[in-house]
Amino acid sequence: LRTTRRRMEEKGIILRCVDTERDVKGLYNVLTRLNRDKHRMISHPYSLFRSFYQKLKPLGKAEFYVAEKEREILAGTILLRNNHHWEYCWGAADATVAKIGINTLLVDMMINDAVAAGAKTMGFGSSSPNDETLLKFKSRWGCVNRPINHYYWNTTPRKVDLNNGMPLLRSLIPHVPLKVIQLAAPYAVRLLA
Fold first, then answer.
1. Which of 14, 32, 66, 142 could form a disulfide linkage to 43, CB 3.0–4.6 angstroms apart?
2. How many CB atoms lie under 10 A from the CB of residue 128?
3. Rounded CA gap, 9 and 136, in Å?
């Protein structure tokens, strides 16, 4: 952590919690770009994150942590809280700073805040068993990988593999302008649901 912190400070990057909706939009842009370029996926709609900021953050049920340089958001994480359980839900870093390990410092900041607030548990969200890099990142924080059990009544829902499904469509996603992906997100979520 010390080396990562030193590298970050040398580049003039600071960590903080968001204080404006502009920050949330900046984090959303980083997340959308990462999902498009690296994961070949469409992000959740911006309205979801705006709702977290407008409705849950004032109640202490959501927090957004960001890394910025000269008011430009370069990385961030989104955390949801429920009583004494904190859940790390989304994280993203711009490709220009991903190698520094800024998300590691953001997670460290979240964990320190959780401990200070008396949280009893912290989750790191679900991950595909095929995403070995993400599972390794989570294991370094002491996360235990557990299976998710699904129970259905009457009918089995349509299964969507977000990591490997729809290869032709996913091969096109990195070529779509970011703004188009952001505008399409609410419709894509309805189609996949």
1. 32
2. 12
3. 26
Q: What is the pLDDT of residue 113?
A: 95
* pLDDT for res 51: 97
Please report the pLDDT score of residue 21 as a whole number: 96
Q: Which residue has the tokens 């299976």?
A: 147
Average pLDDT estimate for 21-48: 94
Give the span between the Cα atoms of 8 and 93, in whole angstroms.
Answer: 13
Task: Give the pLDDT mean for 116-122.
Answer: 93
Q: What is the pTM of this model?
A: 0.86
Which value, to the nearest 10 degrees, does the dihedral of the CA atoms of residues 34, 23, 82, 144 take?
30
